TrEMBL record:
One Pfam family named in its UniProt record: MotA_ExbB
Species of provenance: Blastopirellula marina DSM 3645
Membrane-spanning parts: 21-45, 57-80
Topology in membrane: Multi-pass membrane protein
MotA/TolQ/ExbB proton channel domain boundaries: 1-79
Gene Ontology BP term (one): protein import
The UniProt record lists the keyword Ribonucleoprotein: no
Name under which the protein is recorded: Integral membrane protein
Primary localization: membrane
Entry keywords, A to Z: Cell membrane, Membrane, Protein transport, Transmembrane, Transmembrane helix, Transport
GO CC term, one of those recorded: plasma membrane
Family note: Belongs to the exbB/tolQ family.
Length: 112
């Protein structure tokens, strides 16, 4: 039973760590998506091509917003899952303790 409880805890930790990874990487990718189109946007300024500048700035700011939004969503899902898994683990530990106490009391010679 202890092995099962440990497996549940490890699975929960694994799922939460993946969400934490996505929550941290998303804003980084948004920043990269912001910086990449800024090069062509600056070239557009130097050539006087305002349409190219505008298009690249729209892409740059859109990726920033998308990266921050994705990071926020992953963070929120991770927070909710952390809470749910903590409650599940607490319930499993309680059941484990109850079963362990019942088994010990049945084996106690004073119980008979």
């Amino acid at each position: 039973m202890e092995k099962g409880l440990t497996d549940i805890e490890l699975e929960a930790a694994s799922r939460i760590s993946r969400l934490n990874l996505f929550a941290r990487i998303s804003p980084m990718l948004g920043l990269a998506g912001t910086l990449i189109p800024l090069g062509p946007a600056l070239l557009g300024i130097s050539h006087g091509d305002l349409e190219s500048l505008a298009q690249n700035l729209v892409v740059a700011f859109s990726t920033t917003v998308l990266g921050l939004f994705a990071g926020g969503v992953f963070f929120a899902i991770g927070a909710i899952r952390r809470q749910v898994y903590a409650q599940d683990i607490a319930n499993a530990e309680f059941v484990f303790q109850c079963l362990t106490q019942t088994r010990e009391s049945e084996q106690d010679p004073a119980y008979v």
